[in-house]
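U., I forgot to send this yesterday:
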Amino acid sequence: MNGPNASDGAILPPLPMGDGKLAENIAHFARVLRRAGLKTSPQSTMDAVEAVQAIGLGSRQEFKAILAAIFVKRREDIPVFDEAFGIFWRRRDLVEKMIQMMSPKIADHREKEKPKPAAARVSDALTANRQRPAKQEVREEIETDAHFTASFSEVLRKMDFAQMNAAELKQARQVISGLVMPLQTVPTRRFQPSRQPRRIDARATLRHAMRSGGDLLLPKFKTVRWREPPLVVLADISGSMSQYTRIFLHFCHALMERRRRMHVFLFGTRLTNVTRSLKHRDPDEALAACTASVSDWSGGTRIGPALARFNKDWSRRVMSGGAVVLLITDGLERDDVGELSRQIDRLHRSTRRLIWLNPLLRFDGFEAKAKGVRAMLPHVDEFRAAHNISSISELAEALNGQGFNRDHDPRRFLERNHQHVSRIP
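Result:
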C-alpha cells in the first residue's frame, strides 16, 4: 500500500517498547482514524500493538503496512488512512523543514497541487479535541440597534449560488449537508406479517395449521408493506448550470447516505451515470470522482437527446416502483423542441412525480417564453427554484410530502404566458 509521502521507505524514529509510549501512540492514531470515519475498535487497537511488537519496527513502509492491515476494512478507507498516517507519523526533521519554509525563497509560479479529498476530514479529526485558550481581553461594550439588520445565516440562505465567493460556498455546502433528509414512504402491492387483527393472511394461516395436522387453526394477519420510492436525479451540467449543479450534488450526496434506491445522472451533450461516484463516503472525493467521470462539463446543452438516451437505456432499470424524478435544468434547448416534448412526456408517464428545478425562477416575474420551457412545462408535476439554500430546504420538505402549493404549479406559468401573449395586439 503506497502512501502520499515520498519518504515511505525511510527508517522510522525509534519508539520505546517498554514504557508504553508505542501503545499510546497507536491508540491515539486509532482514535484519529475513528473520528475521520474509519471503523476501529479497542480490539483492533490491541491487535495493532501486538502485531507491531511481534513483527518489529523496520522501515516506515513496513510499519504503515502493518497498521493498514489492521485498520483498513474498505477500499474507500485507503485515502483517509494514507492521509492520516502521513500527518500523524511525521519524521523528526519536521523542525528543519519548517525552518526551510520560513527562509526567503524564489517565487514559484508553478500550479499548486490541489488538496486531497480526505485531507479535510483528517485535519478535523486531529484537531477535534483541541480547545483554544480563552482570551482575557476586556472588550468595550457597544450598544447597537439591530432592528433593521438581518443575521448572516438568513442572508446566506437567500443568496444566489452564482453570487457566492469561495468561503460562502463552503458554508452553503455545510448547511446543505445538515438539512433534514426526507424519508417519505409509499404503500406497495406486497404485504408483511402483522400483529394487528385487521387483515387475515389466509396462506400463512393454512401453512401454520398444516404444522399441527389441521387440528389447531390460529388466524395470521398481514398488512401493507411501505417503502421509500426510488429517487432519480437528472442534472444539467452545461455552462449556465454548472455552478448550481455542483452545489446540488452535495445535496444528492447527503440524500444517498439515507436512501438506498437513488440514482444520479448528469447530462450536457451526453448522458453520464455518476451514481457509483457519489457513493464515496467523503463528499469532496465524491464530487471529484463525478467531475472526472464527465467529459462534457460546462459544455453545450442537448436536453432532448439526453432524455431520449435515459428513456431508452435506463428507464426500466431505475424507475421501477414509482420513482420520483428531479430534473435540474434551465430548459434552454438548442435542438428540436418537438423531440424534447415527446421525450419528457414519456418520462412523465413513467414516474410517480416529476419535479423540475429551474434556477431561472430566481428572477421575479419569470415567464415561460423560451420554446424549451413551454415544451416541458405541460409534462411536469411541480416547478421549483434551485438557486439558494432556502429553495433546496423547501425541496427537502416537498420530498417528504410537504410544501406543495399554488406557487409550484406549472400551469400557473403557462397561464401567465398565455395572458401575456393575448395582450399583444
